Amino acid sequence: MKQTWIQKISLLILIFSLFRVGAQAEAAPSAQDLLARLDQAARAEAKVMRQSMTLISPGGQERKREMMTWSKQSDQGDQMLARFLAPADVKGTGILMSAEDMWLYLPALGRARRVAGHAKKGSFMGSDLSYADLEQISGGGFGESYEPLLLEGEELEGTDTFALKLVPLQEGGDYSFLKIWIESQLWLPRKIEYYDHQETLLKHLTTWELREIEGRWVALKMVIKDVQKGSETILEIKEVSFSEEIDDSVFTTRNLERGR
Amino acid sequence: MSKQSAENKLLLSILIAVLVLGMPFFKAEANAVLDGELKSLIRLQTSSPRVFQAEQNLLLNWQQYFKTGLFHIALDASYQWPGGEGTLALDQAYFDYYGGNFDLRLGRQRFLWGTALQINPSSILNPPNPRDPWGAGLPVYGLNLDYYPWGPFQLTAVYLPFFRPALEAIPGQPQIPVEIPEPVWEEGQFALKLAALGIGGTDFSLSYFRGRENLPTLHSVSPPQASYREVQIAAADLATAWGDLGIWAEGAAYFPKGGDPYFQAILGGEYGFRNGLLLWTQYLQGRDKSQKTQKMLFCGAQQTFALWEWRLASLYNLDQKGYLFNPELSFSLAEAAVLSLGARYFGKDPLGPLPPEENSIYAQVKVSF
User: At residue B5, does pLDDT exceed 60?
Assistant: First the structure.
């Protein structure tokens, strides 16, 4: 039986519609895909950084710290060693995170001391970031701790972003939820809002100075503002390398206690 | 000059000679590092008689790093007023060598054993400092070898060739002589420790010490005399977590020669809140050298804000009903400069065998460089 011209047009419309739906599906990835891409972009097999951390009190006084961090993703889990270089009163202080274990080395104490899970909720060396926040944005990622929900993206600083609401997978987490805006081409976070358990904005993190280094895009500057306390922390990457081989012995308490 | 002092000077001379002569044989990795801190303290004794005291303290650290180790020398200079007494003392002075699976430290040093806070029953390698009984112990000459046979395990051996006494007289009874062991090799002390770190979220260690007690014991003979008894110590400690709660435990059993065994055990925990408040506590139970029961509760809290930090440490002796409160408020004046204001309040009986302190309020400025 010959097809009528109406049938032919209907078939064309159907095929066109299917292509359009497919194209839309590709243009708008799922919330899980977005979070996976964000986490993937932040992960690095090995990373060595020299950073400065400026702490700004609600009254505007500034204190500056310098630190080196070594991080590595391996079969044993994520590992990170941070060591403070300046100023003199914190120089030599070190933090080792290896999978779920965490040790703190204070030069005055002269030995590494195990710190429990609660410490990860606490402030990282007086900053507006907790240890857990730092771990997540430094490559640990959000996927293991949060369920993503898609929000409407918007333009931030002249770039298109995807937006997600991240809801903790487990009760008793540090925040009631997070909102995160992801740069649509580079898959870097441009802004993260942290909400307290009263669902009130607690602090926000914004990223600046996006640069391509050794084939990877990196935000060289992060500004964290605690809107409830009025304090601010600026983290700036001074040097970064993704190609340096880091021996596993770096992530040991033996190395931590050497203090350098 | 006492024999002990002469021995220390001889050892220090040998150590400095080794450091100086050894330098050309090691390839320097970086320039020498000189850092330290200057502390200026004023204290008012609040109990009668009211006495005003001031103390300046300068700690200088010199370190020369090498690819396979470092030299470290620390000098401690202090000046006290009234009295105008100034002292310059060698604090730590050691050489570190880092081998493939072992680390060696030789020289005047502190050995930090145990997981408990401030008081460590398993650690008597360094004598307590009579001027600061709750602070770090006095450094001693010795050799520390850490061997890393496999994975998380660590074996430590310590040898102390000479005994350093904490006290040369019994506090409050200076007429009773204390027999000090001769600084000879035969009086050497040693310790061994097997530790494992990060096994199932737990660090633990087992240790053994053979040497002398770190405080003298009064003999009940006529004429009265005191001595540092020979002792063997078996100890264990662990640090772990229960949920978000940090937990530690440490215990030691002491077997003195010619005396009854005694023990000390500590159980502690800490919890930190999202607002930065940290609470900790630890409980000590045991017997002392004279078989007196010891029950002590330590509690503390601290919270850090941008430039401020407050701290409260307290100690309660459940047997002697003695207690101590030490609140302190610190403010960051500038980079690496901190002002601390605090008070030390002691209640009723002394807290231990060392000289009791008077109640006081104090202010301290610490500048690190």
Answer: no
Sign of the torsion formed by the C-alpha atoms of B10, B16, B21 and B27: positive
Per-window interface: A 45-84 vs B, CB < 8 A: 55-59, 61, 63-64
Residues from chain B that touch A88, judged by Cβ atoms under 8 A, are 35, 37, 336, 368-369
Separation CA A126–CA A232 (nearest Å): 11
Residue A93 identity (one-letter amino acid): T
Q: Tell me how far the alpha carbon of residue A34 is from its chain's centroid.
A: 14
A82's tokens: 């941070």
| CA A190 from centre of chain | 10
- Digit-coded pLDDT (tens) for B338-359: 999 999 998 876 566 555 678 9
Q: Which is nearest to B98 in space by CA: B70, B72, B58?
A: B70
Strand-pairing partners, residue B266, are: B250, B284
Mean pLDDT across B214-222 = 80
Residue whose structure tokens are 């101590």: B324
Enter the DSSP assignment of A58: T
Q: Please, are residues B314 and A70 in contact by the beta-carbon 8 Å criterion?
A: no
pLDDT at position A23 is 46
Residue type, B212: R
- Could you read off the pLDDT of A82-112 as tens digits, one per residue? 999 999 999 999 999 988 889 999 998 888 9
CB contact under 8 A, B247 and A57: no
pLDDT digits 0-9 by tens, A215-227: 999 999 999 999 9
The CA distance from A62 to the nearest CA of chain B, in Å, is 9
Measuring CA to CA, which residue among A258, A241, A259 is closest to residue A45? A241
Nearest alpha carbon to residue A202 among A234, A233, A178, A222: A178
Query: Token pair for residue B258?
Result: 């010619």
Q: List all residues of chain B from 193 to 252 with a beta carbon under 8 Å from chain A.
A: 197-198, 201, 203, 239-241, 243-248
Task: List, in sequence order, every residue forming a beta bridge with B188; answer none if it has no partner.
Answer: none
Vertex A61, ends A60 and A66: CA angle to 5°? 120
Q: What is the pTM of this model?
A: 0.86
Nearest alpha-carbon partner for B209 in B97, B120, B109: B120
Mean pLDDT, residues B311-328: 91
Using alpha carbons only, give the angle B280, B281, B286 rounded to the nearest 5 degrees: 155
* pLDDT of res. A1: 45
Side chain identity, residue B104: L
- Cα B91 from Cα B27, distance rounded (Å): 26
* Residue B62 buriedness (CB in 10 A; 0-12 / 13-18 / 19+): middle
A98 chain-B contacts, CB cut-off 8 A:
198
Does pLDDT of A174 surpass 90? no
What pLDDT shows up at residue A25? Answer: 46
List domains and CATH numbers for chain A.
5-66+120-239 (2.50.20.10)
Does B306 contact A122 at a Cβ distance shorter than 8 Å? Answer: no
DSSP calls for B218-272: EE-SSS-EEE--EEEEEEEEEEEEETTEEEEEEEEEEEETTS--EEEEEEEEEEE
Cβ-based neighbour number of residue B97 at 10 Å: 15
